[in-house]
Design a protein that fits this description.
- By secondary structure, the chain is α/β, with parallel strands linked by helices.
- It folds into two domains: 123 residues, Enolase-like, domain 1; 294 residues, TIM Barrel (Alpha-Beta Barrel).
- Helix content is 39%, strand content 18%.
- Helix 1 crosses helix 3, helix 2 runs antiparallel to helix 3 and helix 4 runs parallel beside helix 12.
- The mean pLDDT is 96.
- Bound molecules: 2-phosphoglyceric acid and magnesium ion (MG).
- Magnesium ion binds next to loops.
Amino acid sequence: MNASAITGLRARRVWDSRGNPTVEVEVKTASGVSGRAIAPAGASRGTREALDLRDGGTGLQGMDVRRAVANVNDHIAPLLKDMDANDQAAVDAALIALDGTPLKSKLGGNAMVATSLAVLHAAAAAKAVPLWRHVADLTDETPTLPLPEIQIFGGGAHAGRRVDVQDFMVMVPGAASFDEVLEVTSEIYRAAGSLMKAKGHSVGVADEGGWWPVFDSNEQALETLVRAIEAAGETPGERVVISLDIAASEFGSKGRYRLALEERELDRDQIIDLLGRWIKDYPIASIEDPLAEDDIEGMTAFTREFGGKVQIIGDDYLVTNADLVAAAEKAGACNAVLIKVNQAGTVSESLACLAAAKAHNYRTIVSARSGETEDVSICHLAVGLNAGQLKVGSFTRSERMAKWNECLRIGDELGGAAFVAGKPLANTWWARQSEGYSK
Ligand code: 2PG
Ligand code: MG
């Protein structure tokens, strides 16, 4: 029997960083080794992403996953038995056919993604290579350590909507190594905490470990972030830039945007103007979901105006879907796509999205979800796919740090030269002004 043939597969219920139940799958191969993966969970979810199957009812506030676990054990395990874990495309095609629904609502996106990723792990283990190497083999990419986006303040759906914007992040494209990115970010994170404490705030953290946003306005958060970068000894816009996830679908639809904090409603043109002012006033190099997922007109107008200046990422807007990336390119919306395996539901569909992004010259950012675990698969995907960028949340809490630390380990295996540095921000104002800027 083939060493990578699947001999056993089972799911169990485990728990994520918000204390919610989730699905873990373990896949055994004929060679005796196995692979394991856990489904993450989003809070600000796109309406077109794969659906997690939750049990509903009153227990665990309806969040239980016993049906998804049973789907793996009762239906997926017999289907995949004896299939080759090394043939990810065939495994994922079988899962998709068994489910048969557009949003994976029958088996559950959570059941499917945990299975798909566990098979990926099992294949790597059967080949006795690290996961990043197996992923690179599947895609013919050159493994490269990504440029991180790291959250300093949380907001939006991850912080009781205390501010409208969901992620206030930093990137360090001017760093010479991945390790340097983490060190600089750690200084900024600490400095931001000190600034909050100095203002007399009691400081807690939001869902992804960024500081809880005790601000009177979105701008105040941006100002504080700039002050924190300075307090860490950096000149904002040089080695360090700002990245925002507006997550506009959370407060906008049908071309109207309701800023809860300021108690005012903006139309499409007004929110574009507001974001344009932020791009002018602050060293912002990347913006995710600036307009809502149903606002094609707004996203196209925003990209026309600012696409030559900043990276514009579609998350809820593109939901890791190859067809939506192709359509966005045609419409002139966004110039980058977030890759979340659980939005697509399988590894193969995520790879297809990545291939579409590369074909249409869109940048790619592999991303975690706000509900995470110790699972570090996405680090290996980001490296093996040569995605260029990685978004994991903040620089605190173990479900986040596990990912940054795993990247350091992969970096040691790869050797120092494999860090992508500022390349993903080519064609943004940062790259242009930093020409000649020496690290
Ligand atoms: C996002 C993610 C991660 P969630 O919007 O990019 O920050 O959030 O997992 O809640 O969708
Ligand atoms: Mg997002």
